[in-house]
Design brief:
By secondary structure, the chain is mostly helical. It is about 85% helix and about 0% strand.
């Protein structure tokens, strides 16, 4: 009985991990996102500052691209 539960738990965990990997693999990064990440790395930004910087950076790049 315990063995059956362990096997069932292992199989369930495999599906959950596989589904999480598939979702993560679907997200593609834009060239703007990659460039802004590189700039944030160069400035040594982390956490909230990094998130704010990247958001402004990507917005500015999109504006420049439209012009």
């Amino acid at each position: 009985m315990i063995t059956t539960r362990l096997i069932a738990a292992a199989v369930a965990a495999t599906f959950v991990i596989g589904a999480g990997s598939a979702i993560a693999a679907e997200k593609t990064r834009t060239p703007e996102s990659i460039e802004c990440s590189k700039q944030a790395d160069a400035k040594g930004l982390h956490g909230k500052e990094r998130k704010t910087f990247r958001a402004h950076c990507k917005a500015e790049m999109k504006k420049a691209k439209k012009s």
